[in-house]
UniProtKB/TrEMBL annotation:
One annotated GO molecular function: homoserine kinase activity
Keywords attached to this entry: Kinase, Transferase
UniProt organism field: Hyphomicrobium facile
UniProt xrefs under Pfam families: APH (PF01636)
Highest taxon of the lineage: Bacteria
Listed name of the protein: Ser/Thr protein kinase RdoA involved in Cpx stress response, MazF antagonist
Aminoglycoside phosphotransferase domain residues: 51-283
Family recorded in the similarity comment: Belongs to the pseudomonas-type ThrB family.
Alphabetical GO biological process terms: threonine biosynthetic process
Signal peptide start and end residues: none
Amino acid sequence: MKRTGVKAVGMTGTDEATHEELLQRLQILAERAVRRYGLPGDCTIKLINVSENATYRVDSSTGQKWALRVHREKYHSRTAIASELAWLSALRENAGVATPTALRGLDGEYIQTVAADGLPNPRNVVLFQWENGSEPSSTDVAGFEMLGETAARMHAHVRKWRRPVWFERFTWDFDTSLGSRPHWGYWKDGMGMTPEATAAITEAVALIGRRLENFGKSPDRFNLVHGDMRLANLLMDGSTVKVIDFDDCGFSWLLYDCATTVSFFEHMPEVPDLLNAWVRGYRRIGNLSEAEESEIATFVMLRRLLLVAWIGSHSETELAKSMGVEYTQGSIALCERYISQYGSAAGKNLAAPPKKGFLKRLLG
């Protein structure tokens, strides 16, 4: 965790506490929150993850388990959280996709708003049933085919689903990712940003923007997505595939769900084979044109550079510290290959994506 005396920025909002102090206060809040759901008084509450939110494992003495999510201040609104829960329910009931089940509090509400001493404002919290299962291997080709199949089912669902009129989630387009209104901060504030990295990323960002504009936002290409569909958010429970952690769900290109599968290791040599496996799995359930397949690299680059920004704005997290400067520097070669394969951002014409083996040449 962050060193004492340094402001925590990921879960803090405007809170000036150190990261350790903030976590102590959130622990107290979590202990108060479980009472809102009528859980046994002897429950143990253990922090298991801190990113945009703080997530706790709650265990009773009888062996029951739950997951408690304490939301970051001033990030998702109460309506946005309710929208996520509505989609989770619709996926379970109408699409055959296993998703986490939220539980109602004693007042009948899924979302509870809880205060704690030392926190400037109350936090929204949600309690989920604990999901059993194991995470597939990150190099498991069969796992990536499974990811593709699952994504296709979810995409087929959102194309037909009538969302509630009040439905509200972030939009993850170019402007809110790498442009002038970024949800996760500016990529230029990434850790270890050098003049060489700035030059390469600037050119790649311009090219990404132009290619995405050309790709378009028709509903069959731009719709509701999971937004973080890595193997880490997939659980295998016998023959059941469970999709978890929908906190980043929002409106984006459907192929963004493909790009997120290789988050943080986009530069590794196995990535082309894994993405090709995702495509195979996707096509078992849904349609994916050659033109769409050929643009996957653009979405991988969009995600890669968005994560450069995320690391810079979440420097207190263990994940950001583990990736850090090396992740920014490793992005330079990817940007240069992308520009070479997909056309110089300095010119006005877009190069046609390579037709065969493009992922191998670009990302391998």
